[in-house]
Structures are given as C-alpha cells and as structure tokens.
C-alpha cells in the first residue's frame, strides 16, 4: 500500500475571460471569471492533466485544505500523493462552474452591464456550456488534451460531454454515479426543490441580493429534498431508524424523530452558504442534459463522435442515478465500439457513495487510473 | 493453469483478426488479453465477481460487471462475432437461456466445459467419491459447479435446442481426443451457431 497524503494547503486562482462565451440557450456571457485549483505538476509534454468536474453543490476545491477556513476539498480521499488519482503523477484541476457561487461568475456576482448582482438575469448555463468554459481554461493553462476527465453525478455528465464536444482532447473519461439524462422522477425531484425556492417570499424574483435577504427557507427545503434522494432507504434506516428525540411521541411539529433533526440541520447548514439562484440554475442544467436529444434519442448515434476510453461506475443502492442508468451509457459506448469498463459497487450509502472511499470502489479507480498512459 | 494454453489456442484459431468478442465469465481477462495480442480483437468481458473485475481493471481489459444469469438484455442482436464462455457453463443456473442469449448477440458461440464422463471421473464415482481433477478441482461441498453434464449430454441439448455444432474439439490434458471423446476427453470445446432455418 502506497502512503496516502494530502496535497496540503491549496490556494484558489482566478482566470478572467474577456472573449464572449456563446451559450446553448442562445444567450451570451460577455465576460466571465473561472475560479480553479490545481494539484501536482504539469509535465513537460503537458500530457498528465486531469480535470475533475463537480456536481450540484461542489466546487473547484477538490483536494487539500484552505489555509484560512481549514476546509478540506470535497474529493480529498481520491486526489493526493499516493491516492487513486495520484498527484505525484497527474496534474489535477478543479474548476467552479459558471453560474456557481464559489467565485466563478454566477448570479451572486455583479453584472458589468448594470453594476448590480446578476440575480435571476444570469443566463441559463448547461453542461455543454460548462465544458466549453472548462476548455477555454484548459487552453489558458496550455493543456491540449486531458489524460482524463473525471466526475460523479452531474460531474459525470460533464466528463461524458467532454468526450462528445472535444473528442480529440480527452483520452479517458471516468463517469461515476451518473446517467445519460435524467428520468421524469429525477426532474420531478428537481422541480419540487426549485418550487421551494421560487415560492419563498424572500426570493424576490431572484433579486434578493438587492433586498438584503436570502430565501433560506426555500433553499433549505430544496436541500432537504435532495438529501433524501442522495441516501438509500437502508442507510437512512440504519443511521436514524425511528429514533426519537424524546423517549416517546410528544405530538408536536417540532423535531421528534432524529431524521427530522438531521434533515433540518443539513438544510439550514446548506442555506447558510449556498446561493439559491445557483441551485436553480444547476438543477436546470441537470434537467436539460440529454446528448441524444439531437439524435432522436439514439444514444449510440450521439456517442459516435467519441474517441475516448471510459470507466463507468455505479453504486448498488443509488436510486437517484441507478445502476441501470449507468448501464445505458455502457451499452451505448460498447455499441459505438468504444473501450469501456463498467463496475457496480456494492455500497450501502446511496448516491453519496461516490464521495466515499469504499475499498472496492477506490481499488477499481486506482487500477484504471494506473493504466492511463501519460 | 497450463491446460488453458491449448484452450486459448483452439479459441484463437476460431477467431479472425479484428473481430468483436464477448467473453462471458472472463475471470481476470487473460483470455481476452491473449486474443487481443494474437488476433487484435475488440474484446469485452462480462464478470460478476468483484475481485475478478478488479483484476480485469488492472489488466487493462474492458470488463462489464453484470450478472449474466439475468441474460444479456443490454446487448444488441448480432453485435459480436464470437461470444465465448470458457469453462463456466457448468456453473450457470440458466443454461438454456444463456446459450440462446449467446447466439442472439453473437454470430457464433464458443463454449468449453469439463466433461463429467471423463474416464477418471467415472473411476472416482465407481470408487465411491465425487471426482476431483485438474478441471474439476473443487470438493463437492465448495464447488461453484451446479450443472453436471457430459459431452453426450451437451450434444443432445444442442440437438434439442436447434443449436448447430459447427466444430467440436475434445482434449485430455493438451492431447486431442478423436476416438471415444465422451470417455477419454476431460474438456470439450464447441463452436456453435444458430441452426439454419428448415427448408423441408
């Protein structure tokens, strides 16, 4: 076993882009910033770069720690010296996506045209737009071709999209706990989350910044709904069961069951730092993603452009992005004559499993990544 | 296992360069790796066992972790040139179903299995014990094998299911057995196809 370490203290960087970015919605971002972090060293051949794409609530802070807050990266168990994505071998990049709320241009930033926060006027951004913006950052960093693009959930959609939008610029895609498009049920969950935000009296049509308020109740509710879908029934049952706050029912709408306490805590915590407009935009990006849409729903035809090799990973208890959804990607890739491996990890933690360091899961990632030539 | 060399060579001889190959129960992927080397196949393995899937990943083999007992529903008709099942049929519950699936997704199927009627196995039974040999290495209480059949039995099943036997080779260790294979051969390899539609 190799010794596993942290990449240590990391400092985010900002890249400003003044060339307008055309968006899939037909809109244009006239200029924008992308906040990113890098770990490891780009080799002389510039062939060892790996892009890590984040999911709904993630950020550019993938690994290491921030000196001021001490906050650890969201995928620190994967990325670092001796870890499956080994920063002694690879130059790893994390980017906060457009529309985000961690420093990249988003609804909580000032719209240069008005001098006021973008709010609801920030244009709709899609998975494809994020990939286009990431490609410009790659240009800026002198990376012609990624050794790999890696992502879980919505991040997996970006990894897949990279191989379709820029087939010559990606050698490997690791598509984890993802899907080729959302199901009606998935869109339904997103819609309930959005309605919670949109109907919060403090939303103010998305211009709440100007009112000095935050639609925290709606955002917390949205997060609570999301959280239920990220965990499995079994995991929730094992962790909380029907455990009561007081030893017996007290017939009140205050917290009685421990699961209520947990969800409220998670919701409130999230609403304290995340931006409601970013949540709205990001769930819409999830809903819209459908690479087969322009191919009459034929995913094999949609994947015809791809040139990458793939690893697709799912988790047995993930019902938000179920294994059958990953298998749709796998079979379509296989029928497009792409090299692809697929594993379904037996893990009790539901959709959130992709963030854990299950030994079989990380073993497969390590084995696959070790075989990537740089 | 040394006997696998001739097993692999027989299979390689049945495969044209550049074919699409599916290997069901691919283990650590060594057969696919061999076929990629000598026949430049575009190969995919199916394996359920997590340790073996990990071994495939280490070997750089395309592996798809599904349970083939549930069929090959995601695989298109006729996509593969050959679908191989090497020494695994005796461990499958859904014998007829998987043979049908192999010939649905593949132009031809290649199947190998240990012959339970091999004379040493018969001798073991006559001596009152379940056979243990190179090709049947497990004890009765821990064997993964659940279907105990012979070359003669498999021929019958093919006739019954309308499966065409394009070629059959039988071996004792690495020696080809042409006379009395059901008695003298420990392993058989078959090249199977869909039977031609009846014209009469």
Q: What does the model show?
A:
The complex is a heterodimer of chains A (374) and B (200). Helix content of chain A is 32%, strand content 16%. Chain A is of the alpha/beta class. In chain A, a hairpin with a 4-residue loop joins β9 (110-111) and β10. The two termini of chain A are 22 Å apart. With 200 residues, chain B is an alpha/beta fold. Chain B has an eight-stranded mixed β-sheet, sandwiched between helices. The termini of chain B are far apart. Chains A and B meet through α9, β14 and α10 of A and α3 and β3 of B.
Helix-strand layout with pairing:
The complex is a heterodimer of chains A (374) and B (200).
Chain A (H helix, E strand, L loop, with lengths): L12 E5 L3 E2 L5 E2 L2 E8 L9 E5 L25 E2 L4 E2 L4 E5 L14 E2 L4 E2 L9 H14 L7 E5 L1 H12 L6 E5 L7 H15 L17 H15 L2 H7 L18 H14 L4 H13 L10 H4 L6 E7 L7 H13 L4 E6 L13 H12 L4
Parallel strand pairs in A: 5-8, 5-11, 6-7, 11-12, 12-13, 13-14
Antiparallel strand pairs in A: 1-4, 2-3, 4-8, 9-10
Helix pairs in contact in A: 1-2, 3-4, 3-7, 4-6
Chain B lengths: L3 H10 L6 E5 L5 H10 L2 E5 L3 H9 L4 E2 L15 E7 L8 H11 E9 L4 H8 L24 H11 L1 E10 L2 E2 L4 H4 L2 E8 L6
Parallel strand pairs in B: 1-2, 1-4, 2-3, 4-5
Antiparallel strand pairs in B: 5-8, 6-7, 6-8
Give the proportion of residues in helices of chain B.
25-40%
**N-C termini distance of chain A:** 22 Å
Rounded Rg of chain B: 16 Å
Mean pLDDT of chain A: 97
Low-pLDDT segments of chain A? none
Question: Order of strands side by side in the largest beta sheet of chain A?
Answer: 1-4-8-5-11-12-13-14
Estimate the global geometry of chain B from the Cα principal axes. Answer: globular
Which key terms come to mind for this protein?
heterodimer, A: 374 residues, alpha/beta, 8-stranded mixed β-sheet, B: 200 residues
């Amino acid at each position: 076993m190799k010794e596993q370490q942290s990449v240590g203290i990391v400092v985010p960087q900002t890249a400003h882009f003044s060339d307008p970015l055309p968006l899939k919605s037909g809109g244009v971002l006239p200029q924008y910033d992308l906040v990113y972090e890098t770990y490891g060293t780009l080799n002389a051949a510039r062939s060892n770069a790996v892009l890590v794409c984040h999911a709904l609530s993630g950020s550019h802070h993938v690994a290491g720690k921030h000196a001021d807050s001490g906050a650890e990266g969201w995928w620190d168990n994967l990325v670092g010296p001796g870890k499956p994505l080994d920063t002694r071998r690879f130059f790893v990049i994390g980017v906060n996506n457009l529309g985000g709320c961690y420093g990249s241009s988003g609804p909580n930033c000032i719209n240069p045209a008005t001098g006021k926060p973008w709010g609801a006027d920030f244009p709709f951004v899609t998975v494809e737009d994020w990939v286009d913006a990431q490609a410009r950052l790659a240009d800026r960093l002198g990376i012609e071709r990624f050794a790999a693009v890696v992502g879980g959930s919505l991040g997996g959609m970006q990894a897949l999209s990279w191989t379709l939008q820029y087939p010559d610029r990606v050698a490997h895609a690791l598509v984890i706990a993802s899907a080729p498009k959302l199901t009606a049920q998935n869109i339904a969950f997103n819609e309930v989350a959005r309605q919670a935000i949109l109907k919060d009296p403090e939303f103010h049509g998305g211009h709440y910044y100007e009112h000095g308020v935050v639609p925290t109740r709606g955002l917390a509710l949205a997060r609570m709904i999301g959280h239920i879908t990220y965990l499995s029934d079994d995991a929730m049952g094992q962790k909380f069961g029907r455990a009561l706050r007081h030893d017996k029912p007290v017939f009140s709408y205050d917290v009685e069951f421990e699961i209520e306490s947990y969800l409220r805590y998670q919701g409130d915590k999230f609403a304290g730092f995340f931006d409601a407009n970013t949540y709205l935009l990001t769930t819409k990006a999830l809903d819209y993603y459908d690479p087969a849409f322009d191919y009459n729903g034929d995913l094999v035809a949609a994947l015809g452009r791809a040139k990458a090799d793939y690893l697709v990973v799912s988790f047995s208890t993930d019902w938000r992005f179920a294994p059958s959804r990953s298998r749709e990607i796998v079979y379509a890739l296989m029928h497009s004559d792409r090299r692809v491996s697929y594993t379904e990890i037996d893990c009790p933690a539901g959709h959130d499993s992709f963030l854990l360091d299950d030994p079989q899961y990380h073993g497969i990632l390590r084995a696959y990544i070790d075989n990537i030539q740089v | 296992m040394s006997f696998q060399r001739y097993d692999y060579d027989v299979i390689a001889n049945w495969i044209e360069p550049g074919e699409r190959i599916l290997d069901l129960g691919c283990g650590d992927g060594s057969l696919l790796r061999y076929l990629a080397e000598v026949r430049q196949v575009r190969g995919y393995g199916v394996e359920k066992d997590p340790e073996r899937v990990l071994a495939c990943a280490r070997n750089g083999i395309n592996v798809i972790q599904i349970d083939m007992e549930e069929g090959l529903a995601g695989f298109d008709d006729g996509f593969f040139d050959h679908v191989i099942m090497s020494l695994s049929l005796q461990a499958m519950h859904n014998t007829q179903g998987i043979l049908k699936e192999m010939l649905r997704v593949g132009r031809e199927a290649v199947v190998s299995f240990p012959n339970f009627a091999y004379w040493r196995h018969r001798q073991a039974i006559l001596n009152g014990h379940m056979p243990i040999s190179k090709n049947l290495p497990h004890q009765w209480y821990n064997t993964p094998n659940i279907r105990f059949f012979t070359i003669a039995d498999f021929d019958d099943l093919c006739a019954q299911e309308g499966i065409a036997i394009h070629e059959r080779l039988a071996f004792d260790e690495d020696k080809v057995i042409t006379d009395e294979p059901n008695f003298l051969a420990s392993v058989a390899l078959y090249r199977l196809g869909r039977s031609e539609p009846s014209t009469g």
